Amino acid sequence: MTRRPWIVGNWKMNLMRGEAITLAREVAAIARDVEGRVDVGIAPPAIWLDPCVGAADGTPLAVYGQNCSTAEKGAFTGDISASMYRDAGAVGTLVGHSERRHVFGETDEQTATKVQRALELGLDVILCVGELLDERRSGATFEVVERQLRVALEGIDLSRITIAYEPVWAIGTGEVATPEQAQEVHSQIRAWVRENYGDSDADSIRIQYGGSAKPGNAAGLLAGPDVDGLLVGGAALTAADFGAIISAAAG
Ligand code: 13P
Q1: Which structural domain, as residue segments, surrounds residue 221?
Q2: Is the pLDDT of residue 92 over 80?
């Protein structure tokens, strides 16, 4: 089965309002150009979601949140619920990004709750998983990834889930995983989905790679048969670089 490439830019805590709107407009035009060949998304800072949704209106560009609350609503100062993202026009959200796990100390259990909350409140989910450098060095890569997947996806219908494999040591470091390293873990993830959810989910679920993806390495990473897309940080902050990555995915 063919899985359409799925390229998402995670803007993290970057760009001011005017810059965000300009970039969203530029990426929306690119998304229109590759419609039907590559699916394109952006995850802007939540405060710029509304104007970015406006910039994407009428185009195939998907606008995502970067995170969501474990709760539906209430006394959670500073938090943003999945239903608020939905109401602002987001169609999905990242959950379990390594910066949420390792900078903000979010646990596997909190990540699992966020996956459930996002799905029940109407958002698709990109679930991020990945090992630390020490874990890779000690040979624990898939043990860690498997635990993150198992806890977050227990009892979850996978039809609205993308998995993003983001080795933590490759994020923002310029040290990209080799295409072989990415493909190896992606194939293990797909085998895990096959064993636990069956052939149909394993064949259809899209698995993105993230971690120092750039115009110069995108085609090589995407050549892996189980690498279905990219979750891009730094290189998603200019239309030139992000557009080049999308072009690599369009082939
Ligand atoms: P970089 O592409 O900047 O390494 O970030 C990857 C990432 O964390 C995307 O979510």
Answers
A1: 6-250
A2: yes
